[in-house]
Amino acid sequence: LGYSGVQLQPLPRRLTPNADGVTERVSAIIRSPVPGTATVTARRRGGGAVRLGEVRLDTGVARLNLDPRRLRMRDGVWDVRARLVPDDGSRPTAQRRRVLVDRTLGGLTATRVRRTIGGERVPVIRIGFRLRQDARVSVRARTARGTETLASGRRLGTGRRAIIWDRTVAGNEVGGTATIEVTALGRLGRTGLTRTVKLPPTGAKVRP
Q1: CA-closest candidate to residue 150, choices 175, 125, 118
Q2: Helix (H, G, I), strand (E, B) or coil at 69
Q3: Going along 67-207, which residue ranges are E strands?
Q4: Residue-wise pLDDT tens digits, 29-59
Q5: What is the DSSP letter of 46?
Q6: 21: exposed, middle or buried (Cβ count in 10 Å: 0-12, 13-18, 19+)
Q7: Which of 76, 139, 140, 160 could form a disulfide with 150 if both were Cys (CB 3.0 to 4.6 A apart)?
Q8: How far is the C-alpha of 110 from the C-alpha of 129, rounded, in Å?
Q9: 26-31 and 7-8 as β-strands: parallel, antiparallel, unpaired?
Q10: pLDDT of the residue at 205
Q11: Which 8-state DSSP code applies to residue 20?
Q12: Contact 91, 111 (CB under 8 A)
């Protein structure tokens, strides 16, 4: 026999509420085969609970905003629970989903700046990011000419961090576009961000 109770749609594995617009919040989607009232709550493993809200369901779909910043959800594993009380007085049903709230890595930027290399002023890429806790960080630049690893499992402390890329892959200067990938391995596991940046033409110099 199939399940005939309230249904809570699967949630993203990880939410990263870092005010950078990347996977910060999600709609919790609830469905029910019978009319009733659904209540959605979230409980953090290790302590802490929040209430997303209560909605009426008439054999349709309802959405509640799961926003860790607004709900003041701390980092960690959260169990989100939808519970439906049917109008006909039948037995309530419930379903749970799990989501990880992780603010470890955020604020990834990739901008062109000027640096002196080999006695010449040249444009380079400044990769910036923010760590909310200590982590092992890897940074890669992927281009049509290959991938350059700028950091691999480097242990960094909390705060704003920056790494300079000289726009080379295997010692050769590249142009076009590049995808910057930053991953951080912390106590909550591995999280990552990407950013695409347009590179200056090869051979570009900066006028004095």
Answers
A1: 125
A2: helix
A3: 76-86, 93-101, 105-117, 120-131, 135-143, 146-156, 159-165, 168-169, 172-173, 177-186, 189-198
A4: 999 999 999 999 999 998 999 999 999 998 7
A5: T
A6: exposed
A7: 139
A8: 9
A9: antiparallel
A10: 60
A11: S
A12: no
